[in-house]
Amino acid sequence: MSADKPMADERLAKVSLTKSLLQRPEVGAVVGLIAVILFFTVYADSRMFSLSGIMNFMEPAAQLGILAIAAALLMVGGEFDLSIGSMIAFAGIALGIPLVLWGWPLSLSILFAFGVAVITGAINGFIVLRSGLPSFIVTLAFLFILRGLTLVSLKEATGTTQLRGVKEAAGDSWLVEMFSGDAFEGAFTWLANMGWIDTFKNGTPKVQGIPVEIIWFVVLALAASWLLTRTRFGNWIFAAGGDPIAARNVGVPVNRVKIILFIFTAMAATLVATITVLEFGTADASRGLLKEFHAIIAAVIGGCLLTGGYGSAIGAMVGAVIFGMVQIGITYTNINLDWFQVFMGAILLIAVVLNNWVRNKAMSAH
Amino acid sequence: MSEDTRKPVIELVDIEKHFGAVIALAGVSFSVYPGECHCLLGDNGAGKSTFIKTMSGVHQPTKGKIVMDGKNMNFGSPRAGMEAGIATVYQDLAMIPLMSVTRNFWMGREPQSGFWPFKNMDFKKADEVTMSEMAKMGINLREPGQAVGTLSGGERQTVAIARAVYFGAKVLILDEPTSALGVRQTSNVLATVDKVRKSGVGVVFITHNVRHALAVGDRFTVLNRGKTLGTAKRGEITPDELQDMMAGGQEMAQLEGSLGGTV
Ligand SMILES: Nc1ncnc2c1ncn2[C@@H]1O[C@H](COP(=O)(O)OP(=O)(O)O)[C@@H](O)[C@H]1O
Ligand SMILES: [Mg+2]
């Protein structure tokens, strides 16, 4: 912001600092994150916050977070996609079948899977915009259609609900490294040699690197946040979700924005599919079950409004970390694992109430 | 004013608009000169909104012509109207409350800086221009990042008007900007209309409140059932006559008779 603003009144400037902090959509999620960390610091085994403990909960958090960030952008744009969970399974076979059964190279198979994602996302968006139906209903239909198509294709191709042999077919292409395993292994070995991180008796570090999905997750969160808050396209996303008619009246290409967001969501699901298929070496018809709801929960904890036009990518990132932390953190406590869903439901509720309160507070004061 | 020697910014001649069997406009002629405020009055259903939507490109006229700068215009879309310099501020669709004033002001025309693919929205420029344009309209924003939802109704209208003027509107159409506002805010919006007019923009001001019209209007056109009942200049018509015309003349006279002149 400029230094020579009119009306440089320091009293007003102070008020607007706290207010601009409160106006940030992710403020509730950050408070929630601190609360969850405090909770587990008190009740969980201290190993939870050791390096390997952190990697343990960051891995599922990252996989969910990749979805949640895309879901958040789409929600800010005023739409939902309930088909992302099924899309993970569908993209999984769109990668696995060409690779294993048709003998395509890994690079082409990955390209093919992302091509399928672009088409699926575009179809979702096109139907929503053309029919004028809520995206909730249209993508709910695709939740079933894509899951069903995955099952039918897998049974047709393999006779089972799983496709094996991905690792063998992929070989050791550099692409495998991009989507699975650890990154920065050299750095971690060096840290171990310096004695700065825990090692096994033979000297190899207990944590050999950062799982690649965490890298994808962080890079995607930063890129999405930049896109949403700093660019023209970001302004169009807010406008399309806030009031599509007003946005159209001033020339915002609302339909194009929404279709791009649907495509982006399907591609995020495909990224998660690629990571899991290469990690496990299989494509599975049941993969990604319920992930659409988890992603939306993380986005809402992160401050996204269900009505669109408001939210944040960093918030969704924090929401996903909270999700992973609670899910894995419980295993470090004496609490029965079955409580996980109760906790998540309660956190969702608290987050929504808190976000609502903060927003009303920020919006009402003149 | 000597409108007669100047050229109108826009002139609409014998505009008809049919929706199937419904004849919403049955031959309306209307013009706007630069720097004037031309009020369009009429009861609900008279065809005011249909008329300005035809002027701005939302509807295409069934018959009649639209002339700007001596050229026949044919707006296929609101976008085409906007590009020709016709800006419309709708009463409730003007602003997105959860977005900041700056984001609303620049919506659809965001300034950019940097190089592809790392082009940023140029918030420095956007914030500066927003603050100074709003100050010109008499509103000192606390900060450009303030959400529009925290502004009053009149201030929101002003953001929309300031935006239209900044982006080079030649004709500014305001569809009932004061009908939902209180007294204080109404006078603020009327003051803004006055500023805009003085900057040389032609204003079309729609209202069914005669007092609001008389406060800022240079000319007054009354629509009734899709037809003009006539156009009058400021000073050539009394508030009572204007009120009468709006109510369809005759009916008002009858009503006045039966109520003993209290209306
Ligand atoms: N899209 C439309 N289709 C059919 N009839 C319409 C349409 N728009 C307006 N009308 C009709 O045209 C007439 C004038 O309406 P309108 O221009 O909205 O009046 P005003 O703005 O003066 O209240 C009304 O009878 C209305 O029902
Ligand atoms: Mg109307």
From TrEMBL, chain A:
The keyword Thylakoid belongs to this UniProt entry's keyword annotation: no
Keyword Transmembrane: yes
Subcellular localization(s) per the UniProt record: Cell inner membrane
Membrane topology qualifier: Multi-pass membrane protein
CC annotations in GO: plasma membrane
Molecular function in Gene Ontology: transmembrane transporter activity
Keywords: Cell inner membrane, Cell membrane, Membrane, Sugar transport, Transmembrane, Transmembrane helix, Transport
InterPro entries recorded: ABC_transp_permease
Protein's job: Part of the binding-protein-dependent transport system for D-xylose. Probably responsible for the translocation of the substrate across the membrane.
UniProt record similarity statement: Belongs to the binding-protein-dependent transport system permease family. AraH/RbsC subfamily.
Listed name of the protein: Xylose transport system permease protein XylH
Source organism of this protein record: Leucothrix pacifica
Organism ancestry: Bacteria, Pseudomonadati, Pseudomonadota, Gammaproteobacteria, Thiotrichales
Automatic annotation (TrEMBL), chain B:
ABC transporter domain segment(s): 10-250
CDD domains: ABC_Carb_Monos_I
Matches recorded under PROSITE patterns: ABC_TRANSPORTER_2
SMART domains recorded: AAA
Assigned keywords, A-Z: ATP-binding, Nucleotide-binding
Entry keyword ATP-binding: yes
Top-rank taxon, per record: Bacteria
Molecular function, one GO term: ATP binding
Protein name per the record: ABC transporter ATP-binding protein
Source organism: Leucothrix pacifica
